[in-house]
Amino acid sequence: MRRSDDVHRTSIMSGAQRVLDVSISTVCLSGTLEDKLRAAAAAGFSGIELLEYGLIMSTWSPGRVAREAANLGLSLEVYQPFHIETVPPDRFGATLRRAERKFELLSELGAGVLVCCSSRTDDGVDDDGLTAEQLHALAERAAQSGVRLAYEAVPWGRVRTYEHAWRLIEQVDHSALGLCLDSFHVLSAANDANAVSRVTGDKIFHVQLADAPRLDMDVREWSLHYRMFPGQGALDVAGFLGSLLSMGYSGPLAIEVFNDIYQQEDPRHAAIDAMRSMRALAEAVAARDLDDAPAPLAGGELPPAPRLDGFAFAELAVDQVSGPLVSRALAGLGFAHVGQHRSKPVQLWQQGDARVLLNSAPERSIDPATAAICALAVQTADAAASMRRAESLLAPKLARRRSPDETDLASVATPDGTALFFCDATGGTPWIDDFAPADAAPADAARADAPPLLTRIDHVSVTESIDDFDQSALFFHSVLGLVPRELTEITAPFGLIRTWSASAPDGCVRVALSTNPLRRGDWSPGVTSPQLVAFATDDAIACARAARERRAPILEMPANYYDDLEARLALPAEFVAALRENSILYDRDAQGEFLHFFTEMLGSRVFFQVVQRIHGYDGFGDPRSVALRMAAHRRQRMRTLASDPAESAVGHRHDYSLAHLTALSLSPPELVDAAAAAGYRYVGLRMTKVTPQEPHYPLAYDPALMRRTKTHLAATGVEVLDIELARITSGDSPSDYLRFLEAGAELGARHVIAQLPDSDFARKTDRFSELCELALPLGLTIDLEFPSWTETPDLREATRVLRAADKPNAGLLIDLLHFARSRSSVGDLRELPPEWFHYAHVCDAPAEIPATTAGLIHTARFERLFPGEGGIDMLGILDALPAGLPFALEIPRATLVAQVGGKEHARLAIAAARRHLDANRPAAAPAR
Questions:
Q1: What is the C-alpha to C-alpha distance for residues 668 and 700, in angstroms, rounded to an integer?
Q2: Distance between CA 622 and CA 687 in Å, rounded?
Q3: Which H or E element spans position 771?
Q4: How buried is residue 317: exposed, middle or buried, by Cβ count under 10 Å (0-12/13-18/19+)?
Q5: Contact between residue 362 and residue 455 where contact means Cβ atoms under 8 Å apart
Q6: Distance between CA 652 and CA 187 in Å, rounded?
Q7: Cβ pair 280, 238 in contact under 8 A
Q8: For 367-411, how does the pLDDT look when each residue is reduced to its tens digit (9 = 90+)?
Q9: Which among 645, 555, 660 is positioned nearest to 609, based on CA atoms?
Q10: CB-based burial of residue 266 (10 Å sphere; 0-12 exposed, 13-18 middle, 19+ buried)?
Q11: pLDDT value at position 574?
Q12: Could you report the per-residue pLDDT of 747-786, keeping only the tens digit for each?
């Protein structure tokens, strides 16, 4: 099937006005040769440069490869590599035989150019005279087959520079031998785009284009792993190509990028990135305005990037948990809720020209209890032209649901799916008419009438995965026409951070990206993919003071920072004191000064920044401030882990633990992560296998699992409340549980759940006592649970055991389901010693008690209910317990877990518990 006619080709007009089609090397793309061809065609490339190993791995014959490429509208003009070096004359026959086979192959493929790469082996010799002789012989054979040889110098070959290769080509002086110029090899040495001017244009047979970051490493390692698409790195690829075209070059062009990330990416996405980079490169070449400059064509001329006039708004996706938290932070910063969308649950918050939308029903779902940037809008001098440019650069247009009377805002999707809107700067802000005036509270009205301290959105910063980082950078650079700054790398508390930023020429729009270029293991205590919206102010100190008065959640900075600031810079003492008092960070450069402060994390991912730029400061602060901010957010998380993210106005909040049975499909590390994401302080870990059907997590005997679990605990700050289950029957010995107890202590657990399904009272009491004695040196309590179907079936029998054992670390675990099903007495519960109780297992269930043991067990293991959904007198039972106990939510619901997954089930459980319990019980005390 031929490529659809609506796919634009990218081509570049040579100085002689001949259109040069652009190919992509198959080395740029992952997958099979079939995958690569389809991806290249779909992205609009006119041809491919075929690498040898791609053909070798394919089941298609060379002839079929040529036919399939032609059916997709792809030419196949260049094949590579043919590795050559000068060898003793008696061995040159083998080189000729190998070359003859390649010439035959090129004939079958329909390719006309063979790239011959300089190589180096122990069999080679350094003799330019002999090299010229052998190259001439190869050129003669190639000419007879209708093939041209493009000779490429490679820094690790015998011929290492293009100058050396050019001297040899001049010496050979054969029509079938020319030069292959690779922008990486030329520019990586000195980044001199004009260096190739000494070469004759008609003797260049092939040009390969690649960019790269500036790295100090072995050039072969650099070349084979870190190349980038043009415009993504630090090399002057536009100058290089402009020089060649001005010299009259009219041969094939191909992007050739060796990059470990691109070669693992979906080839369709990588091909689109490559095409986007080529269209932007064509524009950059034309913008050089040199003599005989080529005119770029990219499915028609790429529309120029219209002038930008700042951000129109940033839109955050929120839910019922994160929404109130973000709203309070905005109010604390002086924003007012000024509008409510007429047809959607979207709020408009504004201060000056800084606008933030809070969307409670975004097009894309977000993780529960989090906030995320779901859309950005820029003000542009010509929204229609911005949209045409974005579509020319293969940005996918987004369909937008709207009512007929609502503003039609054009938008495209960024690589991570965020919507990017284009708003006409010349036509005012008609989209605001889609919002009805909000019923302003007195505080909102006062903020709306006050002079704004924040004037506009200064910049937006998002975190990308290393897989998407380069793609997103290329998108913002090319689509918006932003001017990029050089990549920087920052040593941070949790690993290396790579940052990229770009801005409009006048700085009215700035975008920053960051990523972790290296990931190893499970230690990830930082915030997952943080995002920030930064607001501009003319007085950061006054803004911070006002924000503190309004109780904005300002992120606290350590005193050590200000002590070091005083030591490094000669700043007025009263100025440093004001910075210290308000947790404001400071930087300066040759142009000016920069003051900025942050909020705490809002909804687990998003936070705000306030910045003041003085006298033309154009950066983003001292790079060390990134590490400082990350450490401060880590401390904030550790302080607030146990708090309700929504900060209930009632003020009564408990410490919650996620019992493993609630989400038993999750491994211990996964359970810890789920608990942290939902706001639990603790987890309970099920370390023994109770039923044959359930998964087993042998932490006591699996060092790798133990290590991963401890790493996740340390990273998240979640703690282990209890371990289970020491189930001692008539045939069990407490000593069999010693390793289990030691593993629990290693994990930092406080309590151990025990059951005694043994009808012999004396025996089970003795064994319970022995278990307590084993646990005591480890700092563990043994908390006896009494399922109603066991031989220790109720509160009365459990009480007899504890009194008889009389151990200081013995306790009772009240599981609300077991308590209710056993018909135990709340009055008896009130009479027991308070020191026996360390925490409670909390759930609800139908009031009706199953008539059979099987029914009791089935409900307990598979069909419990969230607090408030059943008929258990939860509040009555909990009121009989000492105040401040942690609540461990043990709520297995097999059907719901199958529908939503263990992580979401854990979040739903704690949300229900907070609604039903936090308003009715005193606040929690630390676990005992």
A1: 12
A2: 47
A3: helix 761-775
A4: buried
A5: no
A6: 65
A7: no
A8: 777 899 999 999 999 999 999 999 999 999 988 777 778 888 889
A9: 555
A10: middle
A11: 96
A12: 999 999 999 999 999 999 999 999 999 999 999 999 999 9
- CA–CA distance, 631 with 558 (Å, rounded to integer): 10
Other Cβ atoms less than 10 A from the Cβ of 64: the count is 12
Cα dist from 420 to 21, 376, 386, 472, 578, whole Å: 31, 5, 11, 12, 38
| CA distance linking residue 225 with residue 459, whole number of Å | 32
SS (HEC) of 382-437: CHHHHHHHHHHCCCCECCCCCCCCCCCCEEEECCCCCEEEEEECCCCCHHHHHEEE
**Whose CA is closest to 369, among 814, 908, 921, 890?**
908
Concatenate the DSSP letters of all residues of 533-591 into one string: EEEEES-HHHHHHHHHHTT--BPP--HHHHHHHHHHS---HHHHHHHHHHT-EEEE-SS
Asked if 603 and 321 touch (Cβ cutoff 8 Å), the reply is yes
Nearest to 627, CA basis, from 471, 488, 465: 488
Q: Annotate 159-207 with DSSP letters as a single string.
A: S-SHHHHHHHHHHH--TTEEEEEEHHHHHHHH--GGGGGGS-GGGEEEE
Question: Under a CB-based contact definition with an 8 Å cutoff, are residues 198 and 218 in contact?
Answer: no
Using a 10 angstrom Cβ sphere, with 0-12 exposed, 13-18 middle and 19 or more buried, the burial of residue 398 is middle
Written as six digits, the tokens of 615 are 């006298």
**Phi, psi for residue 799 in degrees, rounded to 5:** -65, -40
Which among 239, 235, 226 is positioned nearest to 466, based on CA atoms? 226
Tell me how far apart the alpha carbons of residues 579 and 573 are, in angstroms, rounded to a whole number: 10
For 697-749, write each residue's pLDDT tens digit.
999 999 899 999 998 998 888 999 999 999 999 999 999 999 999 999 999 99
Contact 680, 888 (CB under 8 A): no
Q: Are strands 495-503 and 510-515 parallel, antiparallel or unpaired?
A: antiparallel
Cα separation, 74 vs 47, whole angstroms = 4
List % helix, strand, coil for the chain (3-state, nearest 5).
Answer: 40, 25, 40
**CA gap 697, 709 in Å, rounded:** 11
**Strand 454-463 with 435-437, pairing:** unpaired
